[in-house]
Design brief:
Blueprint: E1 14-21, E2 28-34, E3 43-49, E4 60-62, E5 78-87, E6 94-101, E7 111-120, E8 126-127
Antiparallel strand pairs: 1-2, 2-3, 3-4, 5-6, 6-7, 7-8
């Protein structure tokens, strides 16, 4: 269920799971969207496979520190979530592709797609940037 809620309700859903594997350590994660995509609190949560069997619920650990990618009011970046992951053309950089909105009161009509580079923490977990609008450097290997 969503963070700190005993049950799942319409305003608090988890959706859009994406597998993410650290290319350096081999650690496996599931990154998922939390809350509703039409509101400012949409964000990303994280599960880590800590055992051998991905079908065994006991082999997963949920990040309980809250969302790992969330709104950034200073950059007018709200409701960020539903991510996918890719690499730069030369394979040297990791990129998150997600949608968010600048106007948190306009729901789904305000959503736009963005992409930003991310890195990895010393413990092997993804280190996502604060969301924003750029401009950002071109991915490495881009002609």
């Amino acid at each position: 269920t969503p963070y700190g809620r005993p049950s799942n309700v319409r305003l608090a859903s988890n959706e859009g799971p994406q597998q993410l594997t650290n290319p350096h350590t081999g650690q496996t994660f599931i990154v998922y969207s939390a809350a509703r995509s039409d509101n400012r609190n949409y964000c990303l949560g994280l599960l880590e496979l800590v055992g051998d069997d991905p079908m065994n619920v006991q082999d997963w650990r949920k990040n309980t520190q809250g969302c790992v990618f969330y709104q950034n009011p200073a950059a007018e970046a709200y409701g960020v979530g539903h991510a996918s992951f890719t690499t730069s053309p030369d394979g040297r950089e990791n990129w998150i592709v997600y949608h968010g909105m600048r106007d948190p009161a306009n729901g789904w009509a305000a959503r736009t797609i963005r992409t930003q580079k991310f890195t990895w923490n010393a413990d092997g977990t993804p280190q996502f940037p604060r969301p924003g609008y750029g401009p950002y450097p071109t991915p490495s290997g881009q002609v």
